[in-house]
Amino acid sequence: MIKTKFANKALAERFIKECKDFEGLSKLRMYKAVPERFWKPAPTKMFNDKFVDSRIEVIVKK
What we know:
The structure is a single chain. This protein has one helix spanning 9-17; strands at residues 38-47, 50-58. By secondary structure, it is of the alpha+beta class. Strand 1 and strand 2 form a beta hairpin.
């Protein structure tokens, strides 16, 4: 673990904004995860006297 010693949010943001720390042969890497699809729980339904969970797809704005 790298000791960054962030005292406040401004120091953390400055560390992250320095792209050269994450380029080339650096051991540090930064990734951005962007979901293409995701779902939220829908109301539970009954089927043959059993509870069945369902989900609703959430539309992702691009």
